[in-house]
Amino acid sequence: MTGGYFSEPHSVTLRTPKEVTMEAAEKLSLYDRLGGVYSIATVVDEFIDRVMADPRLNANPLVDEAHHRVPPAGFKYLVTEMVCWAKGVSLVAIASTE
């Protein structure tokens, strides 16, 4: 068979699963790579719990006072909102699409 599909040499580029995954991840936004608002909120929740319980931070009277001025749930929401906003996503936009 001449001039057919099998007669011409073809080059094939083999990629590892890690390379394929990395290429797909590069196409996603940082917000999506972090897992969206729920994953971000989970990390913020743990982080704020640790920050508020850290005796080194609470040794500063101003920090200790600030920790008691705002309820932890409200502070966690604000930090989650700031992280999402920094990644270019508004929680208001998320709420309106769900």
The structural domain count equals: 1
Termini separation comes to 58 Å
Helix content: over 70%
Count the DSSP helices: 7
**How much of the residues is beta strand, in percent?**
under 5%
| Cα-atom radius of gyration | 24 Å
Short account of what is shown:
With 98 residues, the chain is mostly helical. It has helices spanning 17-27, 30-34, 36-53, 55-58, 61-69, 72-86, 91-97.
Structure description:
The protein is mainly alpha-helical. The termini are far apart. It has one domain. The relative contact order is 0.10. The protein is built from 7 helices and no strands.
Label this structure with key terms:
mainly alpha; 0% strand
Topology summary:
Blueprint: H1 17-27, H2 30-34, H3 36-53, H4 55-58, H5 61-69, H6 72-86, H7 91-97
Helix pairs in contact: 3-6
